[in-house]
Design goal:
The complex is a heterodimer of chains A (618) and B (190). By secondary structure, chain A is α/β, with parallel strands linked by helices. Helix content of chain A is 36%, strand content 16%. Chain B has 190 residues and is α/β, with parallel strands linked by helices. Chain B contains eight helices and six strands, in the order E-H-E-E-E-H-E-H-H-E-H-H-H-H.
């Protein structure tokens, strides 16, 4: 063992490797992305790593490898689990041979997601065991236990850290290479009675799963993963409110990062009460819960997302006729949505125990702070694409359906070009639906290249087959930019370092039957606007591919410059584009050289030809 | 009790690297360290922060409001934004050069930074101002800012190690051609 400073996601990857990982697949999504990236970086050749086209493909690949005895991990964010849920629900019945961990990172807040769904709840629904780490060290240790349990019970297991664990860093104890497990997969052994799902098999498996989960509840109660810290047993001021003569009668139950907030809060408040940490929310560790509840008259459950522990304890109280009051989200003691913080947890515990929160310095009201909202980068080709469509469709009744990626930021002023955004790939058929109800509206669906491959292709097939009238706009920046520039089928690179044939979006669309597919550089504004006008006027499903690489990935050109003699200070460049590369200096538009990439878009928007740059410098 | 350090500023100022250097130095001295930082959407021209906890006794990578021993602020408004985290009697080291929000041109922000520095002056006794713009010009690189700020922070005595320790980590981290510039920046203002 030695010490290393690791990010939570890196610790998960390293823990999985220490458990003898053979295959890891996934689809990028904050806050899960670095797990697979770290695994790829640490790959000494024995590991197969892939960014799959989406979470469903990733999970199916991992299932096949696990059928063959490999230890496999699938990585995704919580909304990715929705995409992977079809194979996973069935895989729960079929089971696996090699250990299989489905790593799903949840995002309380949400900080960068569409939903506040809780994978612990999905665990109960899918009947799959679930692990919920609190710290970076625990993430490293726990994932190894997750592999052991998965392989022993022949079931995929869920492993669900949240953002603060995924992105937290800590100096932790990690294993030396010779302490790490090596797993030699046996290979696929044909057995249709085992690997082919039929109603008869599912009926039998269902009963076995329920029986196994009852046994696991008992086993996990004694596993050390669901400890009760009993506190000092001394009576504090805070416990005077409760029945004296026994141990502390007020208890707290917590999980994940919130457990560490509770530890911080109890230290700050100088209180010491029994603390039940639920590390495996499913199957719920009933035996451990009963022991904990017997020493408490009241329990405050401190959770993020769903009240899983709160419901679990309430159920156990009923089942075992325990007269303990359970408080938490359902009783209004903990906020129902959003993240917990040390401050919010300290406040909730102080109110619950009837103690004072230590006073903080009172300061005068600060001046109004500048707001720094996320915006499309300077030189981002998406800005040009949105602007071209906006310009071409000016005055025409149109609807612009967006999708998931950096280009969701096209909703910000002044572009204001995203009317809807739902989930990966949804824009294509949402625009189809709007068009069915509003036939006089020009319908556009914007989709990024990675999202196109992930889940828009079937949408386009649907639109073509069902005679939709719409324009598909593919924003092809040759990367998965939002999550940190992962490769995808259109980039010609894989996570194993191979250079492979790029899959052409244009050919895919033509293959589906989209007859008009025009590819244009959005930074050539005139050509782009003309292209949009031409293509939008056609009937049926037609497509424009705006092709220009992500500004972060290419070397910047010479920054633009504004000729003060020509600039009439109309500020059209600023009002039309909202590019961070143009600022106001001494009351006039000026180029921020540190940000400007020389993309040349603003020079094409200036009515007085006052902006020059890399492209028009000569 | 751990030393709680908060580094804040705007995406692109080298905050994450500064945090990593402090953590690596702690590791080299066998001191436990935890940290947490903004990742994802917030980086696109947004406010960036890094929490660091150096020493025994930290349960969580973040720390509560009112418990930072030191705030190293790369930008005046970001110092004010994070001020609630400073403990009574805590120290702030702030770069006086403001960064306009990327939307300022559009929204017509009147932000200059001066109002933030005046406010900080009224609220914080232990306030160290660093003219980062001037310092970078003297050193000859706009990329020197993070080492200038880090050097000032280490000299303030709040961190549990000295400049020599940080310098050693820096030499092991940055590319050889940048060592001299970064050394100069670390020692700037001595």
């Amino acid at each position: 063992m030695y010490k290393e400073f690791l990010m939570g996601n890196a610790a998960i990857a390293r823990g999985a490797i220490a458990a003898g990982l053979n295959v890891v697949s996934g689809y990028p999504g904050t806050p899960s992305t670095e797990v697979l990236e770290t695994a790829a970086k640490c790959n000494k050749g024995g590991l197969y790593v892939e960014w799959s086209v989406n979470e469903k493909a990733a999970l199916e690949l991992a299932a096949g490898a696990a059928y063959s005895g490999a230890r496999t991990m699938v990585t995704m964010k919580q909304v990715g689990l929705n995409v992977a849920s079809d194979p996973l629900m069935s895989l729960a019945y079929i089971g696996v041979k090699g250990g299989m961990v489905v790593l799903v990172a949840d995002d309380p807040g949400p900080i960068s997601s569409q939903t506040e769904q809780d994978t612990r709840t999905f665990a109960a629904y899918s009947k799959l065991p679930c692990f919920d780490p609190s710290t970076v060290q625990e993430a490293y240790d726990m994932i190894q236990q997750a592999f052991e349990l998965s392989e022993k019970y022949h079931t995929p297991v869920l492993f669900r850290p949240t953002t603060r664990v995924c992105h937290g860093y800590a100096s932790i104890e990690v294993k030396d290479e010779n302490e790490c497990k090596k797993n030699e997969p046996e290979g696929f052994v044909r057995d249709p009675s085992k690997w082919v799902i039929f109603p008869r098999l599912s009926f039998r498996a269902h009963a076995e799963i329920e029986k196994r989960n009852r046994a696991l509840s008992e086993l996990l109660s004694d596993s050390g993963l669901n400890p009760v810290e009993t506190g000092s047993g001394k009576l504090h001021d805070c416990t005077n409110l409760f029945v004296p003569g026994s141990c502390n009668r007020a208890g707290i139950a917590a999980h994940g990062i919130s457990y560490t907030y509770v530890k911080e809060a109890l230290a700050a408040l100088g209180c010491d009460v029994p603390l039940f940490k639920v590390g495996t929310p499913f199957p719920f560790p009933e035996k451990a819960a009963v022991e904990f509840l017997h020493c408490c008259d009241e329990v405050l459950c401190i959770e993020e997302l769903d009240p899983v522990i709160e419901r679990g304890l309430t159920y156990v109280c009923g089942k075992f006729a325990i007269e303990t009051t359970i408080r938490g989200k359902l009783t209004g003691n903990i906020p129902e949505s959003g993240e917990n913080t040390i401050a919010s947890v300290t406040k909730a515990i102080a109110e619950y125990l009837g103690v004072e929160v230590p006073e903080k310095a009172v300061r005068e009201e600060p001046p109004a702070l500048p707001v720094r909202p996320p915006v499309l980068c300077a030189g981002c080709p998406h800005r040009a694409s949105f602007y071209a469509v906006k310009t071409a469709m000016k005055g025409k009744k149109s609807v612009f359906c967006g999708d998931i990626g950096c280009y969701t930021l096209g909703n910000a002023m002044p572009l204001d070009m995203v009317d809807t955004c739902l989930c990966m790939g949804a824009g294509v058929n949402i625009t189809q639906g709007i068009g069915k109800i509003e036939p006089d509206t020009a319908c556009f669906a914007f989709v990024g290249d990675s999202t196109f491959f992930a889940s828009a292709i079937t949408g386009v097939v649907n639109a073509v087959y069902n005679q939709a009238d719409m324009t598909l706009v593919v924003l092809d920046n040759s990367t998965t930019a939002m999550t940190g520039h992962q490769p995808h089928p259109g980039t010609g690179r894989t996570m194993m370092g191979q250079v492979v044939d790029k899959i052409s979006i244009e050919n895919v669309l033509r293959g589906i039957g989209v007859k008009t597919v025009e590819t244009v550089n959005p930074l050539d504004l005139k050509a782009a606007v003309e292209c949009v006008k031409r293509v939008a006027a056609e009937k049926g499903v037609k497509a424009i591919i705006f092709k220009s690489p992500c500004a972060v990935l290419i070397k910047s050109g010479k920054p633009a410059f504004i000729d003060p003699a020509k600039c009439k200070d109309c500020k059209r460049c600023i009002k039309e584009l909202g590019c961070p590369g143009i600022v106001i200096r001494d009351g006039r538009p000026a180029i921020e050289n540190a940000l400007c990439t020389g993309c040349g878009l603003c020079s094409q928007v200036c009515p007085f030809d006052a902006i020059g740059g890399d492209k028009n410098a000569d | 009790m751990p030393t709680n350090i908060l580094i804040c500023g705007v995406g692109g100022q080298g905050i994450v690297l500064t945090s990593k250097l402090i953590a690596a130095t702690a590791m080299a001295h066998n001191i436990p360290v935890k940290s947490a930082e903004t990742i994802g959407m917030a980086q696109k021209g947004g406010s960036v922060f890094s929490f660091l906890r150096v020493g025994e006794g930290a349960f969580c990578p973040m720390f509560a409001e009112g418990t930072a021993d030191i705030i190293i602020a790369f930008e005046p408004a970001e110092a004010v934004r994070m001020l609630p985290f400073l403990k009574d009697g805590g120290q702030i080291i702030v770069n006086t050069h403001p960064i306009m929000p990327v939307t300022a041109a559009l929204s017509g922000s009147a932000y200059t930074g001066a109002e933030m520095l005046e406010y900080l002056g009224r609220q914080v006794n232990d306030l160290i101002l660093v003219d980062g713009e001037k310092a970078c010009a003297e050193i000859g690189s706009p990329r020197a800012l993070n080492m200038i700020m880090l050097g000032a922070a280490v000299r303030s005595g709040v961190l549990p190690f000295d400049i020599a320790a940080i310098e050693e980590t820096m030499k092991a981290t940055v590319k050889p051609q940048f060592i001299e510039m970064n050394s100069k920046a670390l020692h700037y203002g001595e």
